[in-house]
Amino acid sequence: QNGTAADEATKAAIADLVAKLEALNPEANIATSTGMTGDWKLVYTSNQGSSAGKLGPFVGDVFQNVRYENGKYENVVRLGGGIVEAVLGADWDVLEPCKWQVNFRTLKFSLFGATLKEQELKAVGVWRMTYLDDSMRVLWASGGKNVKTENVYILAK
């Protein structure tokens, strides 16, 4: 469930493993690496909200589709094998070698492939990226209203 059901002991163990993995990061300039390109599946997050795929009492699959060459990114949440889908469209600005400001531009909800609602957004977040290789990446994200803490996101290609 993307970490939404993890108990405190599991969260602590994952945090320890993430710190060990980050120490082995092979990519010094994640923010400008074409290795970011691809379709990534969320494996775990400390976030307990919609970014974890949580829509009401349900938890869906979360994918991040990054197209570095186009400067575009989509965060996709799918419930029921795609019966319900929410797509958050964004682009980014490079702030530091391993940091993006993510500019959220659109939000679209679909049911059975038919768009129910689409709207423009003007929200931003900051991704501090701490690990990237050919099959895994780790980032810490902050943003949103009154959000002062970072949440970790572990994704696999």
UniProtKB/TrEMBL annotation:
Cross-referenced Pfam families? PAP_fibrillin
The Plastid lipid-associated protein/fibrillin conserved domain is annotated at 2-107
Question: Got a GO cellular component term for this one?
Answer: plastid
Quote the subcellular location field of this record: Plastid
Keyword Plastid in the entry? The reply is yes
> Is the keyword Repeat in the record?
no
Q: Give the protein's recorded name.
A: Plastid lipid-associated protein/fibrillin conserved domain-containing protein
